[in-house]
Amino acid sequence: MNPLLLFEKWFSEEKELSNLKLPAACCLSTSGLDGYPNSRFVSLKEIKKESFVITGPLDSRKGREIENHSKAALSFWWTSTERQIRIQGDVSVIPKSEAEIYFKQRNRDSKIVSAIFEQGQEILDISYMQKLFKEKKAALGNKEVEQPNSWGGIYIKPIRIEFMEFKKSRLHERKLFEQASSGWKMTIIQP
Questions:
Q1: Which residue numbers delimit the Pyridoxamine 5'-phosphate oxidase N-terminal domain (predicted)?
Q2: Which of 137, 170, 171, 174 has a beta carbon 3.0–4.6 Å from 189's, enabling a disulfide?
Q3: Is 104 annotated in some ligand binding site?
């Protein structure tokens, strides 16, 4: 069984039952530059080339962490279906041409934020940030927002995926898929 197909099935079932505004939200974990794990919520764009696609500024903390240690983890928790999926994998940068497509799909305000701010860097105060945003938005008018050079995306090619279905009995069903030389190997693990 291909765990990526199972992921897509579970994701589809969650979207059918859920009224979540961001059903593709997931927790991306990386190895911090200071040795501490680092996690943040991001949005899954799609599964492509047998990998999970995440986008954003590559010069951000997460981008620098991935450049330093090209392994990451994703965690999904879906409340409607009471399912959790944990993914560990190897990271590579998506081609610039693909990043351009994802950037064009973003809403205008998100594009403007990406164009004028350096994610995670210090700023004087919130009102200054809001003023800067309003000024840039007004200056742009109806012009297209250019994609910053630092904005791109990553593939996370899984080596391990765990699916967990929560049960009222507390006998949660867990299936662990691991990459082996002959393809995916599945084991059932205890709750």
A1: 20-124
A2: 174
A3: no
Residue 44 counted as an annotated binding residue:
yes
Maximum distance among all Cα pairs of the chain, rounded to whole angstroms: 59
Specify whether the CB–CB gap between 28 and 37 falls below 8 A. Answer: no
Query: Tens of pLDDT along 61-97?
Result: 999 999 999 999 999 999 999 999 999 999 999 999 9
Residue 137 assigned as binding residue: no
* Among 111, 121, 91, 105, residue whose Cα is nearest residue 151: 111
pLDDT, tens only, 20-56: 778 799 999 999 999 999 999 999 999 999 999 999 9
Q: What are the strands, taking DSSP E only, across 20-107?
A: 25-31, 37-43, 46-48, 51-57, 71-78, 83-93
Does the pTM surpass 0.85? The reply is: yes
- What are the domain boundaries of the chain? 3-107+148-189
pLDDT, tens digit, 9 for 90 and up, residues 162-183: 999 999 999 999 999 999 999 9
How far, in Å, CA of 153 to CA of 156, rounded? Answer: 10
Phi, psi for 164 (deg, rounded to 5): -135, 125
* 3-107+148-189 CATH fold: Pnp Oxidase; Chain A (2.30.110)
Is 64 one of the annotated binding-site residues?
no
